[in-house]
Design a protein that fits this description.
With about 160 residues, this protein is an alpha/beta fold. It is built from nine helices and four strands. The chain has a four-stranded parallel β-sheet. Strand 1, helix 2 and strand 2 form a beta-alpha-beta unit.
Length: about 160
C-alpha cells in the first residue's frame, strides 16, 4: 500500500481534452471536489493535508504536467517550499497566492480554502431564486415564454 494523491486516477485519462488540462493541487479531498465543479479547466487533486503527499514517489505521476498549487490560507509559504520537489518532475510548477491577496483578516484566521471562497458565491440558480422571491411575477414570465436558465460561460 502506498500513499497517492486524491484524484490521481484522472491523470490516466489520455484524451486530448484531459491531457491538455493543467493540474491544480489542494489540501483536502472536499476542496478538490468542490473546485472541480466550479472550475473544470483544471484536473483537481488533493494531498490529503498540508503535509500529505508531497514526497518524491507520490509526485512522479505529475511528470511533464503543468501544476498549480492552491494552498489553504496560512499555508502558502509552506507550500511554496514544496515547489522545489515539484519543479524537478513537472513541466512547470507554481503556487497561487490568490487567497492570501483577497482574504480578510478574519478569513485568514479561519484558514479558509478555495472551496470556502467558491461556495460563498451565489450560483445562477440561487440568483434566479432571489429574483423570483423579490418579484414572483418573474416565474409567470419564465413559464409564458418557455425560458430556461443557461450558463452563459459554458460552451456546448
Amino acid at each position: 500500500m502506498k500513499q497517492c494523491l486524491f484524484g490521481e486516477h484522472l491523470l490516466s485519462d489520455t484524451s486530448a481534452a484531459m491531457s491538455a488540462k493543467p493540474v491544480a493541487i489542494v489540501e483536502s479531498e472536499k476542496t478538490a471536489l468542490v473546485a472541480a465543479m466550479f472550475i473544470p479547466d483544471f484536473i483537481w487533486l488533493a494531498t490529503g493535508g498540508m503535509h500529505g503527499c508531497f514526497n518524491g514517489e507520490a509526485i512522479q505521476v505529475l511528470s511533464g504536467r503543468e501544476v498549480i498549487l492552491f494552498p489553504d490560507l496560512k499555508a502558502t509559504e509552506e507550500w511554496r517550499r514544496r515547489l522545489l520537489i515539484l519543479e524537478s518532475v513537472c513541466k512547470r510548477a507554481t503556487c497561487s497566492d490568490l487567497l492570501e491577496r483577497i482574504a480578510t483578516n478574519e478569513q485568514r484566521s479561519q484558514g479558509l480554502d478555495i472551496a470556502d471562497f467558491l461556495l460563498m458565491a451565489d450560483t445562477p440558480q440561487m440568483i434566479l431564486a432571489k429574483m423570483m422571491e423579490r418579484n414572483p411575477v418573474l416565474q409567470t414570465f419564465i413559464d409564458t415564454f418557455g425560458l430556461e436558465l443557461v450558463d452563459a460561460g459554458r460552451v456546448e
